[in-house]
Amino acid sequence: MAIWLTLMGVSFLGFIIGLIMLFAQSQRKIGIFVVTGASILIIISIIGVFISFGNYSKLQEQVASYSSDSKTGKTKSEGIEIYNVNWHNNADGMDKKISTVTVEKKVVHSTMEDKDMPGTLTIAIEIKNNTKDELLTYPLQGELTTINGQQLAADIILSDIIDGKMKPGATIKGRIVFPLDKLDKVSDIQWFQFSWSTYNKDKLIKSDTGRLNLKK
Known about the structure:
Blueprint: H1 2-22, H2 28-72, E1 80-89, E2 94-110, E3 115-129, E4 135-146, E5 150-153, E6 164-166, E7 171-180, E8 191-200, E9 203-208, E10 212-213
Helix pairs in contact: 1-2
C-alpha cells in the first residue's frame, strides 16, 4: 500500500506543476501532457490503494476467524509438550539463545499457506548484538527442519518477535511459530534444526543450531 500512496503523492505534485505550466504560454503544451499523465497516475494509484486495502482486510479476517475459533473451542488442543532446550551460542558477535521449544497438536490456520495445519512447533529465541555495528538479523525468515524432512517457514502473524535492525547492544526476543503440515501426535517431533541469516554491513552470517533433540 505504501508504494501506491507514494505514487499518488508524486502524481498529485506533478498535477499541480502541470497546472502551473498551463498558465505559461510557452509551456502550455507541456503542461497539458503533464496534467493528463499525472491524472492517469492518480487514478491508477487510487485503484492500487483500494486493492491493497482489500487484501489487507482479507488477511485480518483470516486472523480474526482463527482467534474466534480458538475462543469457541473449535481448535482445542489435543496434546502439548514443552521442552527445555537451553541452546546457547555466542559466535559472530551475537549472543543467541533458544530456551524452550513447544510442540502442540492443535489446528491452526496458517496465514502464510492460507490453510489449516494440524499443529505447531514454537521456539522461544533471544538474540543480542555484541558487535560495534548495526546488524540486520532475520530469524522470522529462517528455516526449521524436523523429522520426516519437513522444512518449515515461520508464520509472521502467529509469531510475536520483531526482527530486522539491531543496534549495538540491542536484544530481540520472542516466539517464532512454525505451523506443521504433518503431525499425528506430539511425540512425533523428536528433533529440529533451525538456521537464519544475519548481515553485518555486506557480510552474510549464517546461524545454525545444528540438530537439537527434544527430550523431557
